[in-house]
Design brief:
The complex is a heterodimer of chains A (355) and B (332). Chain A is mainly α and 355 residues long. Chain A is 67% helix and 7% strand. Chain B is an all-alpha fold and 332 residues long. Helices cover 75% and strands 0% of the residues of chain B. The chains are: A mainly alpha (355), B mainly alpha (332).
């Protein structure tokens, strides 16, 4: 009897084993992370976004090294490319016979700057004789570095304050969320302009340090979104059973917040951070466009587009698209790349998303 | 409900108080104040002494840059602002409220027209994209929508100027009126037409930048509704796809749409700083950018407060609209 049972057990065991082998042949057990990755890579847009961001990164961080190794110059090398430029000015006047004549005045000058695209300078040189392609690379470095640092700082501040507000509730929540409301209601660009103007006019701050202050200001204007997301998530999560279990083990509140609650808000945080990167790049380029970002000899995409500002004369806007169009295209590619990835991640993290 | 509203208004006032204190503190830190800028030449030439400059600053409450000094001048600014007096703009030589009320209208015109265009273009596109989810149309529209949100306004403006104003020469480059044209004094219609002609490009820029967001918003909300059970029921009843989309689904999508669109209304008065500046349109954004660059503190304060009030107002309006539009919402 007992032996029979044992034998039966053995057979079920072995058949279980067989079934399991069968499963493993036909189905793969994958971790949640792998599942997210799979869903992410299924979307063509996220892959396109990934390519765009990889391109911009290689362009801005590896590009300068290649230029330096091959041609041996950097961002601030001035080139004098001699060429003869025709200047034609026209005027209409009425002759004594009553007909209208057009008068052409053609002159030739020797110019060194604003060289057209050539084999040595693929995108030409700008008004100061800098190589435009190289400046685009260094400008990209600035934009990408700033955006990553700002988003990192925003996330840290937002997680800490949002975590405290969501976990403790009551007056802590009230206080923190009112501060969040106030910061969220600050008019973004005007306040950034005031702050940047302040920094630019303080002489004791060296021009190259301005960028650090700018990062701080951008962080100050942007952390509220993260705080709201974290707080909202934690309000929901802290009512779940696993938190009750955590409560019974008697661990400290800090441990509960940052070890058990915050990691569960990671998906939302990653998505909002990715989408936020583009926003920071747009803000940074706007400040540079207005001359309040990275100071002059250093390159920034925004200030390269500012060359085309028609208030300073139409010449560059009309005749030198090689000076400002590439910078704009790079901004669009970067911001678009981050939004594609962010959207892809959101869809990939969202378990309700079924395709 | 009234209790809820009262609470919201009280909260709005607290926020505004905090925002005003913060902005005041920040703008007082700005050392490039207008008086220094304006008197620099006179001081250099010996026409003014530094004491004169100091007296001027005291007059405007800018002399004391210590924290209690700022607090004192903030309180005096706040009391006069509450009685409707926003002070005197250094740069424009007029009361700040005058400058604001004069220049917001042109900004509002531009913003309002592009707001209408965004609605007329973005919502139908969003509906169509959501109905044909994952189709070629959906992808194209989504990519264009995201492109609109990724374009910096100054770059889009420069591109459009290059093509339409310089290469094709069919639209004016900058400004609100043709400077070289002289109109007879009673040619109001022609003047209006001339202004409208100058506003085509700025309105296009604002519309292109805004339409993507609205389209995406419509699409997301439509998709959510289209996946709900009652839509399946409607289809099962054999209703035509048009009736399902527009009568059953879209009406529920209207709830978030109306809420957010009505919340955007006050913001239309705020002006588009960069676009107005690039096109040299004398709207409130252009005036504010100039004032900021020159350190015109009363104007900066007035303008930023105005923007904060618009934001808070927008939040209140969308809260109220949410209750009005959605009968399911019950407030405690």
């Amino acid at each position: 009897m007992i032996e029979k049972e044992k034998a039966a057990q053995q057979t079920t065991n072995s058949s279980n084993q067989e079934v399991k082998d069968g499963y493993e042949q036909h189905f793969k057990v994958i971790s949640p992370g792998r599942m997210v990755a799979k869903r992410f890579f299924r979307s063509k847009l996220s892959i396109a976004g990934l390519y765009m961001i990889v391109f911009v990164f290689l362009f801005s961080f590896v590009g300068p090294l290649i230029v330096d190794a091959t041609w041996g110059y950097e961002e601030l090398e001035v080139f004098k490319v001699e060429r003869i430029a025709d200047m034609v000015s026209t005027a209409d006047f009425k002759g004594p016979d009553g007909k209208t004549y057009t008068y052409y005045d053609k002159s030739q000058t020797l110019v060194y700057f604003k060289a057209p695209p050539s084999a040595e300078h693929w995108l030409g040189t700008d008004t100061s004789g800098f190589d435009i392609l190289t400046r685009l690379m260094y400008g990209g470095r600035i934009s990408l570095t700033i955006s990553f640092i700002v988003i990192f700082l925003e996330t840290i501040i937002g997680v800490i304050l949002g975590g405290l507000a969501g976990y403790f509730g009551k007056w802590v929540d009230q206080l923190i969320m009112r501060i969040v409301d106030i910061f969220a209601c600050l008019p973004g660009l005007p306040v950034l302009l005031v702050l940047s103007a302040t920094i630019s006019s303080i002489e004791s701050i060296p021009a190259e340090h301005r960028i650090y202050y700018m990062m701080a200001f951008l962080t100050l204007m942007g952390w509220t979104g993260v705080a709201r997301i974290v707080r909202g998530q934690i309000l929901m999560l802290r009512e779940q059973e696993y938190m009750l279990a955590a409560e019974t083990t008697g661990i400290s509140p800090m441990h509960k917040i940052f070890r058990h609650l915050v990691p569960n808000t990671m998906p939302q945080l990653i998505v909002s951070a990715t989408l936020g990167l583009g926003g920071v790049i747009l803000y940074e380029s706007t400040l540079s466009y207005l001359g309040l970002g990275v100071p002059f000899p250093r390159a920034a995409w925004g200030s390269m587009i500012a060359l085309a500002d028609p208030s300073k004369g139409q010449e560059i806007l009309a005749n030198y698209p090689n000076m400002w169009v590439p910078a704009g295209v790079l901004i669009v590619v970067t911001v678009l790349g981050f939004s594609f990835i962010g959207d892809g991640l959101r869809d990939a993290f969202d378990p309700r998303m079924k395709r | 409900m009234w209790n809820y509203l009262l609470k919201r208004v009280a909260l709005a006032l607290v926020i505004l108080f905090g925002v005003s204190a913060l902005i005041y503190l920040l703008s007082m830190l700005m050392p490039a104040d207008y008086i220094d800028n304006q008197t620099a030449a006179a001081v250099q030439m010996g026409a003014m002494t530094l004491e004169d400059v100091q007296r001027l600053k005291e007059l405007y409450g800018l002399a004391d840059k210590s924290l209690p000094g700022i607090a004192k001048s903030y309180l005096s600014w706040l009391t006069s602002a509450l009685s409707g007096d926003l002070g005197y703009s250094f740069l424009y030589g007029r009361p700040v409220s005058d400058v604001l009320s004069q220049y917001i209208w042109i900004s509002f015109m531009i913003a309002f027209i592009s707001y209408l265009l965004e609605i007329a273009i973005g919502i139908p596109m969003g509906i169509k994209a959501s109905v044909n989810q994952y189709s070629a149309y959906d992808y194209t529209v989504s990519v264009f929508a995201m492109m609109g949100t990724a374009l910096p306004s100054f770059f889009l403006s420069a591109l459009l100027m290059n093509v339409f104003a310089i290469r094709l020469g069919i639209l004016p480059l900058q400004g609100l009126t043709t400077a070289t044209k002289v109109f007879p004094p009673n040619a109001h219609f022609q003047i209006l037409l001339d202004k409208a002609w100058h506003l085509v490009l700025p309105i296009t820029v604002l519309t292109l930048l805004g339409v993507g967001g609205l389209m995406k918003f419509t699409r997301t909300n439509m998709l959510e509704v289209l996946n709900s059970d009652y839509i399946r029921t409607a289809r099962a009843k054999g209703l035509s796809e048009n009736v399902v989309t527009y009568k059953h689904a879209f009406r529920n999508t209207l709830i978030p749409l109306v809420t957010s669109l009505s919340g955007m209304l006050p913001g239309l008065f705020g002006g588009a700083m960069i676009t107005e500046t690039v096109f040299a349109i004398p709207g409130i954004g252009y005036m504010a950018l100039r004032a900021t660059q020159q350190g015109d503190i009363p104007f900066i304060m007035g303008y930023n407060m105005f923007l904060a009030i618009l934001t808070v107002l927008g939040m209140l309006i969308s809260d109220i609209m949410y209750m009005v539009v959605d009968p399911r919402v019950k407030l405690s």
